[in-house]
Each structure stands twice: as structure tokens, then as C-alpha cells.
């Protein structure tokens, strides 16, 4: 081993970012570039009666004005649910939807012209409640919903003897959870620069997580063959799922460029980003857990209704994930799930970090805490009794391989001094625990379905000895460029500085499914390892030609190829020898996901070649006068297999905890009816540095058998456990259960006062069976 | 109007409604200063005006006539400063979009002497970061301050 994988390597693009020289999409300009602006609907659900465009056309500096009729073909990230258009066609479905777009010589001129466009709307009934969407409606939001409903997706799954489990259980607990929507709030607002050139080629630079999905959508909507479309991903200022879909403004910029023959840039305002949303689904659900008298889980029954907003986005997957990603990390012999996703006239929901698993995880872990109390057991002991083992299969046929959840729980218990604190801290202070698991990449690709691999990496090396990595995986800030560099340098035994990662460019990078579902380290990492091993074989063969020793004897280390008996040549000698035959060296590696999942409908949803596991402990102090929850410390034990870069894994955990605590304590897409009330960072408040607790990361996983160098995901799994860990700690502190988020001071304060009137604050009863 | 940006003199004639952030980004092509929120809540656009941190998205370009502006590009041209290096090495940046504003805010703090942890939290509390959870940013600034002190 060369020690590059597994070490705390700083981001390879860190110096560019720290000096302000990293280029993001909004930083790019081209000669002759125009600026685009989008006219957005003030109505939530309305027929477009007429549009008056001529005034905008006559504004100085305006080059083109377009409407949805220019390219009315619909698109969507999932090929089975294409229900978004570049601009509204015929009617608008949410407030903030684009209806027309303008290209002009300056952003100000484009905005001025956009304001001149007059649209006459005829209002339609508005739907803000997914419950109403599931019932009979008078006006359908999308024609393809079944019957006269606004349902987008309905899932029913049942495994094992559910009825019997609940009939014969010694204990049944029920949690009715209610969760508002939250949004990604990546700091970089979405931006796109498109250039349609006279050789009938389209080049698009965009802040996207998935260049290859955008590539397809552009080709389909604009009807340009894929081989004439080129997508380039500059630096991306955070995504968290919010840049995973092909987005309307990306198509609009391309359409405007085609119309004007000039490059067109669109940079969304923060307000527009809020209306674009595609964030976490507002959720209502009823979750029931059944257990026997010893605390063995017998059954799990979940009924969930999620608010999809005005488009499908990833929603079909979300509907499945809300159920199937809640079964682990526990052994559950009977599982029933009913999930529905309704369209409403609100900005679309979609995928957001820990996609589809946060809200159910919250209620699941709270339910386990409740069950522990009924059983008078320590909640850690109850969890220990029910964990999935490594190398097993869940009731819904997920293949589980490496699994260090037991080590996670033991680590967080020891480090937090759980045994001396649980139910023993004074009133107002408390400690809580919660677990979780998450996929290391969705096993089923959305596009490019088999026989194509999920991820391919190409390497190129020329006379200068620098290795160029071509990959379609997107670094969106998580550090995938650094991880891929570490993997390649590790295999080739060369310093990191000899490796460079080319910007993602669909003209040169092989197809990759991009950055979502926490797939990159696992899938791109495996592809990179294969590509590097292929390259190494070429060097070894050349070393054999030079030295006469068999190629298999050579090991790559410290920039040299070494064989027993003090045989050693520099890697450059080998490279130059190998180049004699073919010129610059190239290699390719690919990762194809295994065949996984059962035979039933929806069986592939949630399958993954590996799962991360987590057990978090949180300690809190509740200000009983003001209702404020102070999270003092979080012990985050996480199993990401072998961490390839512990510093980056810690960064993912700390960032996830910030985002998860934000959702728990205050973040909310606040609506009055269909109207979003807080579309700004000032009003959509995330946690400030002062409000962040201390976080102790405990990376205790064991090597995964299929992950690259034993690694699994660390981008999303670290988020869900923190919400219920804190909620359970609040219960330990003051005896209050919260099943509706967020836990803002006013909500907590009201509950505290009510509790005081009903007999006063006290610690809940201590368990009879402790954690041992 | 004249202004100095990163020790260079510029002669510009911005329209009355042009914001400093747009003057820097669009007219002077200093794109290191970022635009994240449009309302002064995220701090990504922070620059120094006569040494004091200021939101360039809330500042009309004409108001900095004759004044001295420092952007991220002027912090340590051509090489990384101690603070910048510390952010990279500690993992205090991920997507990097908040980083220029964060560095400017921290720089203003470090110029006032060795800060306490609370001073650091206060200094960056107007700078939004969605990636790091702030822990490693605070650590990086502390480290830079220590190195600065023990220089």
C-alpha cells in the first residue's frame, strides 16, 4: 500500500477555491454573450389565456423572447415521469413557474424586458394539500393522474405476516409524524451558460450534479442528436440533490441561444432558487411497530402521504424510499407499506440529501424509543436485540453485506458516557440515541440501463508523466476529484501531484450517472481503481521489456516500479517504453452494479451494492423557560467501510448534522395555501455557527468486500440519525415527545407549558434493563 | 469615478443602479467575490472597503468612489496566505462558494489581534456555509491565528 488512500488529503482543488480562482458557471463569460431572464407566474394554477410579448421585443438590447410553445416537449429526471417543461405550456401549475424568457445585452435589460411581458391568466382551483389530491378533484394538475385525482404515485408492499404480528404482539407503538418541506439551500444559485453554434452543436456549461442526464434532456427537448450536445460542468457550489434534475432554466438558456445565435447565460436569483425547489417532501405518515414481550420487533406498518408539488422529479423513487429505506438497520419479519405522492400547486419536491429517508427515520427511531420505554429497556439494549447482522437479507430482499452498526452503537455509547447519563441527568438535560442506514448508490441506473456500466473512468498519460483522469462523476464540493485522485495515485504508486482530474465534459468524459444517491465513491471509485490497474499492467509489461523480469513481479511504489532483487526503474521509464508502441497511454475501467433485488413490483427501489450504517448519541439542554433546545454535543459513529479520506468523511458528517439539525430545529418551506412565505435565506433560517453543537466523529466501520479499498458511502447516511437522536434526548430531558417538526421554541414552549399544567416536568422512568 | 481594487487604480463609470458586486464581477472580471442571496444574509459577497468588511451586494458601486477595496483576489496574489492554507489543510472548505467571503470576514478579524473562539464565531456568523457545519472553518481560523501569533 502507498498510504495515499486512507489519509487526510486536503481537497486537490482547495487552493483554487481558497484563492477565489475556482470558476463556477456564473463566473464564465463568452464573447457576445447575452443575459437571459425568465418571466414567472404569480398564479399557482391557471390557464394562460394570452401573452403580450411585443413590448418586451421593443425594449432596447433585447434579442429574443420565447414562450413554452418554442419547445413544448416535456422532460423529467425519471424517463417514466416526464412532466416538466422548459416554460409553461397552456397552463401554469405553481407560483414561480416560468412562462416566457428574454435574452438581452445586460441582466438589467433582460429584467426590464421581462417586466414588460403581460400575461392574462384564468385561475383554476388550487391544491395545497396532498390529502385533497388523493381524493376526487374538479381540476387535474396533470392529465396523467389516475381518474379524477391528483395522485402522482401509489405504492403498496407487504412482506411477511403483518396482520398476525400486530394481532399477537405484546407491544404496539404508533407515531403520527408531520413534517414540512425543507430545501437544499446550496450556496451557489443555479446558473447556466449555453452556446448554440452554426455547426449545429450545442455547448452548455451548468451547475449540475448530473451532466449526462442534462445532456439527454437537452437533446430530447431541443431535438438535437446527443452527439451534437456537449455539457461541461464547472465547479459547483453545493448541490445536496437540488442540482440533480435537468432543470427548466437549463433548457431555456439553450433555446435562447439557438434563437439568437449567441451565447446566453442565466443566473437564478436566490428567490428563483426557492421556487425551483425540488427539495424534501412535506410528509404525513402513520408508523406502527409491533414487538413481543422481550422486545423483538415483529412487524412494521407504515402509511405515508407526501406532497410532490407540481412535478414528479425523483418523486416515484421518493415514494418507495419513504418505506423501504426505513426497514434497516433492524431485522423486521413483517413489513407493510402504503405510500402515496400527490401533486399540489406548490413548487416541486424532489430529492434532497438522504433522499426519502429522513422523515420516516425520525418516526422509526422515536417509535423504538417509545417501545423501549414500554418495555422498561434501555433503548440501546432494545436496538442491539434487533440489529440486522452482516451478510444477510432484509424482509424486502435487500442484500446486506458489511455492517458495523453494532460497533457504531458501542462506540457512541462508550464515548458519550451513555450509561452514566441516560435518565440520570437533571430535569432539562437529556441524552438520546438513534440509528440509520443508507445506500451506497442506487443499484438501478435511471438511464443507460444495463448492459452499460454505471460508471466508467478513463486515464491518459503522455510524455510529461502526468496522469489525466476523465470521469463524468461530478465534484459538487464533496471532494470526489480528491477521492478519484487518491485512488489512482494509490494504485499507480505516484505522488498525488502527478494526477490531474479533467473537468467533466461529455465530449471527453465517459458516461457516468453523476452525483446523487451517494454513489460516487463506491461506483466511480471502483471504476477508477480498475482503470488504474489497467494502466499499471501496461507499465509492468514495459518494465518487463526493459529489465527482462516478469511483469507480475513489479510493484508500483514512490514513483518507481520495483521487483525483488533491487530491480527498480522510474515509472517514467516504463511509460516512455510503453509509449513506443501506441503513443500516449490510455486505460479504461468500469463499474457495473450487481443484479440485486426481489421479483415483486418496485423490488429494485432501495437496492444497493452496500449500505452505510450509523448510531448517533446527542446530548441536549432544554431551556424550560424559553423553549429553546440547545444541542450540546453529538457523538456520530458511522460505518462508511474504510474511510478513504477521514477528513472528508468528517466534513460530510459535520455538514449533514448541520443540515439535519436545521430541519429539526427550524428550517421550513412555510406556505400559506399555495403561497411560499419565506423564499429568501434571511427568512429560511439555517443554523448559524453559534448554534452548532460539538460533533465527535467516530469512524468505526470495517472494510466492505465490494467497495473500492473497502469504502462505502458517507454523503447522505450521516444525516437522518441526528434528528431523532436529538428528539429522543429532548424526551429524556423533559418527557416531551414531538412528532411534528420543526421543534421551534414556540412549539416547544407551548408543549412545556401544557405539560406543567398537567403535573409538572419530570424525567421519564428509568429502564429496568440497562444497555448491557 | 476612480477607485482602488486590490492596490490597482480603476477608472469606471457604473450606472447608478449598479451594485459593487456586479461592478467587481461583471466589469472588472474579479469573479472570486460571490453572489449567494441578494439580500445581505449569506456573506459570500463580503469585501473589504477601506479595511472594513462590507456586503458588496448591498453596496452601490458609486458609493465606493475614491475608496480602497480588497477582494479575495487581493488577499495574497499568486500564493496562499496562512489563513487560506489553513482552510485547505483543515478541511474548512468543501464546495468553496462561501470561502472567499469567509476568508475576507476572518481576515478582518485576524487583523485585530488573536481572537478567542467566540470572536471567531461572531466574526463568521454572517457567513452562510451549507457544506461544512462550520466546525472545520472555526478550527482553520484558530490555527491560522495561532500560527500568526507564534510567527
Give the % helix of chain B.
Answer: 25-40%
Report the β-strand fraction of chain A as a percent range: 15-25%
Category from helices, strands and their pairing of chain A:
alpha+beta
Number of helices of chain B: 5
Give the C-level CATH assignment of the largest domain in chain B: Alpha Beta
The tally of helices of chain A reads 19
Shape of chain B: globular
Give the topology.
The complex is a heterodimer of chains A (772) and B (151).
Chain A: H1 14-18, E1 34-40, E2 46-52, H2 54-57, E3 62-67, E4 91-92, E5 98-104, H3 107-115, E6 118-123, H4 130-134, E7 151-159, H5 162-168, E8 171-179, E9 191-197, E10 201-206, H6 211-222, E11 229-233, H7 248-260, E12 264-267, H8 270-276, E13 283-291, E14 297-309, H9 315-324, E15 335-343, H10 358-374, H11 379-386, E16 392-393, E17 399-400, H12 405-415, H13 418-421, E18 429-439, E19 455-461, E20 467-471, H14 480-492, E21 499-501, E22 504-505, H15 520-547, E23 555-557, E24 560-563, E25 567-570, H16 571-582, E26 585-591, E27 611-623, E28 628-639, H17 646-665, E29 671-672, E30 675-676, E31 694-699, H18 722-734, H19 745-757
Parallel strand pairs in A: 1-12, 10-11, 14-15, 20-21, 28-31
Antiparallel strand pairs in A: 1-5, 2-4, 2-6, 3-5, 7-15, 8-13, 9-10, 9-12, 11-22, 13-14, 16-17, 18-27, 19-20, 19-26, 23-24, 24-25, 27-28, 29-30
Helix pairs in contact in A: 6-7, 10-11, 10-18, 14-15, 15-16, 17-18
Chain B: E1 2-5, E2 8-11, H1 20-27, E3 46-49, E4 52-55, E5 68-70, H2 82-90, H3 99-110, H4 117-124, H5 135-149
Helix pairs in contact in B: 2-5, 3-4
Amino acid at each position: 500500500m502507498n498510504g495515499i488512500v486512507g489519509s487526510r488529503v486536503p481537497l486537490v482543488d482547495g487552493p483554487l477555491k481558497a484563492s477565489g480562482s475556482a470558476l463556477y458557471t456564473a463566473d464564465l463569460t463568452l464573447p457576445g454573450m447575452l443575459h437571459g431572464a425568465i418571466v414567472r407566474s404569480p398564479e399557482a394554477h391557471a390557464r394562460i389565456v394570452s401573452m403580450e410579448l411585443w413590448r418586451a421585443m421593443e425594449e432596447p438590447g433585447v434579442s429574443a423572447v420565447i414562450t413554452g410553445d418554442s419547445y413544448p416537449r416535456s422532460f423529467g429526471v425519471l424517463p417514466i415521469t416526464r412532466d416538466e417543461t422548459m416554460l409553461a405550456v397552456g397552463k401554469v401549475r405553481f407560483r414561480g413557474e416560468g412562462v416566457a424568457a428574454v435574452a438581452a445585452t445586460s441582466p438589467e435589460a433582460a429584467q426590464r424586458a421581462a417586466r414588460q411581458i403581460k400575461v392574462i391568466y384564468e385561475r383554476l382551483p388550487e391544491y395545497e394539500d396532498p390529502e385533497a389530491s388523493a381524493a376526487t378533484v374538479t381540476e387535474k394538475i396533470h392529465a396523467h393522474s389516475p381518474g379524477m385525482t391528483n395522485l402522482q404515485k401509489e405504492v403498496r408492499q407487504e412482506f411477511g405476516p403483518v396482520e398476525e404480528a400486530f394481532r399477537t404482539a405484546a407491544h404496539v407503538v404508533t407515531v403520527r409524524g408531520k413534517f414540512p418541506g425543507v430545501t437544499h439551500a446550496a450556496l451557489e444559485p443555479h446558473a447556466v451558460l449555453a452556446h448554440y453554434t452554426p455547426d449545429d452543436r450545442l455547448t452548455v456549461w451548468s451547475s449540475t450534479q448530473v451532466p449526462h442526464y442534462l445532456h439527454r434532456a437537452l437533446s430530447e427537448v431541443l431535438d438535437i442528436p446527443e452527439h451534437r450536445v456537449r455539457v461541461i460542468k464547472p465547479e459547483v457550489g453545493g448541490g445536496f440533490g437540488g442540482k440533480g434534475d435537468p432543470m427548466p432554466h437549463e433548457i431555456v438558456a439553450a433555446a435562447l441561444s439557438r434563437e439568437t445565435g449567441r451565447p446566453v447565460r442565466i443566473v437564478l436569483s436566490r428567490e428563483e432558487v426557492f421556487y425551483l425547489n425540488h427539495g424534501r417532501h412535506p410528509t404525513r405518515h402513520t408508523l406502527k411497530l409491533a414487538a413481543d414481550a422481550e422486545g423483538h420487533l415483529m412487524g412494521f406498518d407504515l402509511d405515508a402521504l407526501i406532497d410532490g408539488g407540481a412535478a414528479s422529479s425523483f418523486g416515484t423513487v421518493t415514494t418507495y424510499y419513504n418505506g423501504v429505506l426505513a426497514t434497516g438497520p433492524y431485522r423486521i419479519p413483517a413489513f407493510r407499506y402504503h405510500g402515496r405522492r400527490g401533486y399540489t400547486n406548490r413548487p416541486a419536491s424532489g430529492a434532497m440529501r438522504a433522499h426519502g429517508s429522513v422523515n420516516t427515520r425520525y418516526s422509526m427511531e422515536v417509535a423504538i424509543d417509545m417501545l423501549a420505554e414500554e418495555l422498561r429497556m434501555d433503548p440501546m439494549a432494545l436496538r442491539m436485540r434487533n440489529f440486522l447482522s452482516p451478510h444477510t437479507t432484509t424482509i424486502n430482499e435487500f442484500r446486506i453485506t458489511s455492517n458495523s452498526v453494532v460497533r457504531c452503537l458501542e462506540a457512541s455509547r462508550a464515548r458519550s458516557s451513555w450509561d452514566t447519563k441516560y435518565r440520570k441527568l437533571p430535569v432539562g438535560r437529556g441524552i438520546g440515541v438513534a440509528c440509520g442506514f443508507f445506500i451506497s448508490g442506487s443499484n438501478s441506473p435511471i438511464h443507460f440501463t444495463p448492459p452499460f456500466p454505471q460508471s466508467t473512468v478513463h486515464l491518459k498519460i503522455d510524455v510529461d508523466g502526468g496522469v489525466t483522469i476523465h470521469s463524468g462523476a461530478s465534484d459538487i464540493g464533496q471532494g470526489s476529484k480528491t477521492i478519484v485522485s487518491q485512488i489512482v495515485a494509490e494504485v499507480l504508486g505516484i505522488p498525488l501531484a502527478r494526477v490531474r482530474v479533467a473537468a467533466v465534459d461529455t465530449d471527453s468524459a465517459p458516461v457516468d450517472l453523476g452525483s446523487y444517491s451517494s454513489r460516487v465513491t463506491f461506483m466511480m471509485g471502483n471504476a477508477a481503481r480498475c482503470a488504474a490497474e489497467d494502466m499499471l499492467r501496461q507499465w509492468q509489461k514495459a518494465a518487463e521489456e526493459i529489465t527482462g523480469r516478469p511483469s507480475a513481479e513489479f510493484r508500483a511504489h514512490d514513483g518507481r516500479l520495483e521487483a525483488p532483487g533491487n530491480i527498480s526503474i522510474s515509472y517514467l521509464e516504463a511509460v516512455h517504453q510503453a509509449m513506443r508502441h501506441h503513443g500516449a497511454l490510455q486505460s479504461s475501467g468500469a463499474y457495473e452494479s450487481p443484479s440485486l433485488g426481489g421479483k415483486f413490483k418496485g423490488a429494485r427501489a432501495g437496492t444497493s451494492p452496500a449500505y452505510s450504517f450509523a448510531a448517533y448519541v446527542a446530548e441536549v439542554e432544554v431551556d424550560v423557560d424559553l423553549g429553546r433546545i440547545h444541542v450540546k454535543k453529538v457523538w456520530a459513529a458511522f460505518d462508511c467501510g474504510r474511510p478513504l479520506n477521514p477528513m472528508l468523511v468528517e466534513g460530510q458528517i459535520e455538514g449533514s448534522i448541520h443540515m439535519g439539525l436545521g430541519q429539526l430545529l427550524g428550517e421550513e418551506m412555510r406556505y400559506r395555501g399555495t403561497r411560499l412565505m419565506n423564499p429568501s435565506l434571511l427568512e429560511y433560517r439555517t443554523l448559524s455557527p453559534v448554534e452548532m453543537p460539538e460533533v465527535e466523529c467516530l469512524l468505526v466501520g470495517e472494510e466492505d468486500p465490494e467497495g473500492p479499498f473497502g469504502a462505502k458511502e458517507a454523503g447522505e447516511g450521516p444525516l437522518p440519525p441526528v434528528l431523532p437522536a436529538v428528539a429522543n434526548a429532548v424526551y429524556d430531558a423533559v418527557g416531551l415527545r414531538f412528532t411534528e417538526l420543526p421543534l421551534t421554541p414556540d412549539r416547544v414552549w407551548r408543549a412545556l407549558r401544557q405539560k406543567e399544567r398537567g403535573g409538572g416536568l419530570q424525567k421519564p422512568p428509568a429502564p429496568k434493563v440497562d444497555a448491557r | 469615478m476612480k477607485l482602488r481594487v486590490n492596490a490597482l487604480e480603476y477608472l469606471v463609470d457604473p450606472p447608478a443602479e449598479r451594485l459593487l458586486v456586479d461592478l467587481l464581477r461583471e466589469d472588472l472580471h474579479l469573479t472570486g467575490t460571490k453572489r449567494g442571496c441578494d439580500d445581505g444574509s449569506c456573506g459570500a459577497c463580503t469585501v473589504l472597503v477601506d479595511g472594513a468588511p462590507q456586503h458588496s451586494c448591498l453596496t452601490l458601486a458609486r458609493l465606493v468612489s475614491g475608496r480602497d477595496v480588497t477582494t479575495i483576489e487581493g488577499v495574497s496574489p499568486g500564493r496562499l496566505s496562512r489563513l487560506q492554507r489553513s482552510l485547505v489543510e483543515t478541511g474548512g472548505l468543501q464546495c468553496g462558494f462561501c470561502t472567499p467571503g469567509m476568508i475576507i470576514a476572518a481576515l478582518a478579524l485576524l487583523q485585530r489581534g488573536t481572537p478567542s473562539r467566540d470572536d471567531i464565531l461572531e466574526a463568521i456568523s454572517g457567513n452562510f456555509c451549507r457544506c461544512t457545519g462550520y466546525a472545520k472553518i472555526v478550527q482553520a481560523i484558530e490555527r491560522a491565528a495561532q500560527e500568526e501569533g507564534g510567527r
